[in-house]
Amino acid sequence: MASGSGVVKMIEVDGALMQRILGTHKPLDGTKFDPKPLLDAVEDIILRATVDGSDSRAFQGDLSYKMDHLIYEAIKKVSCELSCKCSGAVNSREVAIGLLHLLGSYSWEAKAVITLAAFAANYGSYFLVSQLSGSNDPFVKSVAFLQLSPNPLPQTQLKLKPDALKVIKAIFHLTKYIAQVVTFQSQYTMLTSIFTAHEDDLAKAVYLSIKSTVACASLLMNTDALTNEYRLTTNEAQELSYLSIEMENIRRKLEIQMENWKIRIDGIIPEDYDRLYRMLNYITYSDNTEILRALLCWNESSATIYDCSRKIQVDINVLKGKRVWVYISKLEHMIFSKSEISILSEKYNESRKYWSRSTDEFEIVWVPIVDASILWNVELQKYLEQTRDSMLWYSITNPSKLSKAVIKYMKEVWKFQDKSLLVVLDRQGKFVESFGVDSIRIIPTKEPFQSSSLKVYGLWKGTIELLENSIGPEILEWINAPKYIFLFGGEDTNWIERFIVATQQVGWAGKLDIVMVYVGKRSMNWTTYERKISKQMRSDKKIFVLNEGKYNSFWATLQNISGTKMEMEEMETLVSFDAGGEEWGAVFHVSFPPMAKAKGEVIVDVLNNYAQWAGQYKEDSFVIALDKKIKEVNIYGNYRLKFSSTTWSSPKKVQCPVCDKTMEAVISYHCPSNH
Asked: Which of 258, 257, 261 is nearest to 269 (CA)?
């Protein structure tokens, strides 16, 4: 460990030595790795060997981690180097430089972590064997004899001196911080030139980590050879002290640099965010390339995306002039969402068959978001590649390089949170609409990626959510079944019975899986609602009646619709039916959003005549056919919708349920007295 003169000098990394260190660094992208599993194992070994080996606390690392064979081989080679070259007097500088050459193709943090892991493997091995040295088992005695020392077997466990253990802990903390610095740098490529200017400091930190590891390895070999009787020389103790000081100094320097970089980035993100916000909201472009570059390739040297079907990188101009669907999801969420990709792929394939003109063209680009607390590593990279290779569309090339300003915009403006989101951009790159990926499930195959379809879906989704919030999760169960859901309301007992009979007959004739939900009337109190529910309704499994809480919730929720800006025409029509004092029925099904609905006698008559008109609409689903027939019958005369001024605020615009034209607003007065 000591120099030839026997005097230990303060560790200096001068210009010539730094050139030697930097000259060993020839990294290859393919040799990067995840440092966390190795650091977890190293920490566990240090902890247990430092105490007494009897610590029973569970290992917090990931023992299921599959180490790359190249990393494993590198650890074995460094382990051998430490065992062979650290016996007796050692020139720790030259051994450290030799290890840097050996690990030349690895990234800076990999050099430090691999070297420390190799030392921990040696230390742990000797420690385990020393624990067995007192055994009476001849086999164990023989193994310990060959592994440890030619001297008489020690009766106590092999331990490094406290001074050495203190240095080992300092090495560990420095190495762990080096890994954090490199990970941080990989996430902010816009500061690459600044990071490069400080590479000398990172290289010095790695050199000191490895040099200190070599010094501790030398102590380990001497401790092993001389058993626990070995005592540190003055030079050895002095060098360990100097190494501890130097490692602390370089770590503090890295921490200061990291803080400065964070301040710099905190200033950049708002600037980038403001620029991005202006681009997406105030500037009009002739096509979508500028906006797509900003969203998908911000601050990257080349504007490329990944073609998942061909498994190659392509220029972002392949999206020029097309409608683009930005498919945003958390990368870790995709582990549990294979069905999401499957359904999206099915709809994507089918919809492309119906392209009839260039204006129908669209593309999907997957943008996986990685949580800021998760360090990008080889395992994540492999999972990313496996996931995107199962897709048919495009993907960004590197999620870890996605601009923080872009992520902020997606969360704050597009409201991306935990669930996957589809964001529609027009041919100029302007925002059109955003929807949850589950929207694709219930939109017709021919038009899932048409904006008009999603506009209808957006309103329909609000209706479903309203029903779920008021009636309960049964709504979702019926939709997923899928069942035809018949809502009906009113207070005329005779009409209720006729509606139920007509619905049952249609269910039998059309072989439809139906469920009926009686919701009563807004002005009806709970006691009256209960009286309207006959024994037949309670016993019929296809009829769902509300409990008091759900009944009150349903009408309270509807009461709030017209007072908001929500364009929920389907529910507003039902509100009007109720306000008009009439019975009504409505039918919907998961296969398509429109709700077929009509006032009391109309819908009963149409349902009773099902056998006569069913054959006219063979190409349509039942709900669409029913809706068409209701409009075709057109026995409404002068159709009116009514809203109570005491409770409801009337919507600004309402479409006629018969002809879809915008209805005129008129004021009328109604006396509540029954005369």
From this structure: 261
Beta strands 584-589 and 543-545: pairing type? unpaired
d(Cα 182, Cα 200) in Å, to the nearest integer? 13
Dig out the tokens for 270 from the structure. 């708002």
Least confident of 30-44, 392-406, 485-499: 30-44
3-state secondary structure 570-629: HHHHHHHHHHCCCCEEEEEECCEEEEEEEEHHHHHHHHHCHHHHHHHHCCCCHHHHHHHH
- Answer whether residue 150 shows pLDDT above 80: no
On the CB side of 181, how many CA atoms lie within 13 Å of its CA?
A: 32
Report in angstroms the alpha-carbon separations of 265 from 182, 270, 276, 277, 405: 16, 9, 16, 18, 10
The contacts of residue 553 (CB under 8 Å, 6+ apart) are 469, 470, 471
Class of the CATH domain delimited by 289-449: alpha beta
Residue 592's DSSP bridge partners are: 589
445 Cα distance to chain centroid = 27
Residue 18 structure tokens: 């730094």
Quick one: pLDDT band at residue 441, thresholds 50, 70, 90? low
Determine the Cα–Cα distance for residues 211 and 11; give it in Å rounded to an integer: 10
Nearest to 667 by CA among 642, 638, 637: 642
**Structure confidence at residue 171 (pLDDT):** 92
User: Which is more confidently placed, 633 or 611?
Assistant: 611
Tell if the pTM clears 0.85, that is, is over it: no
Structure tokens at 670: 């109604």
Q: Which long-range contacts (CB under 8 A, 24 or more apart) does 628-637 make?
A: 630/596, 630/597, 630/598, 630/602, 630/603, 630/606, 630/657, 630/658, 631/657, 631/658, 631/659, 633/602, 633/605, 633/606, 634/658, 635/602, 636/599, 636/602
Structure tokens at 10: 């303060």
3-state secondary structure of 506: helix
Q: Tens digits of per-residue pLDDT, 252-295?
A: 999 988 888 888 877 777 888 888 888 888 888 888 999 999 99
Residue 11 pLDDT greater than 90, yes or no: no
558 neighbors 566 (Cβ within 8 angstroms): no
Predicted local distance difference test score (pLDDT) of residue 69? 75
Residue 621 CA, chain-centre distance (Å), reads: 36
Residue 272: count of CB within 10 angstroms of its CB: 21
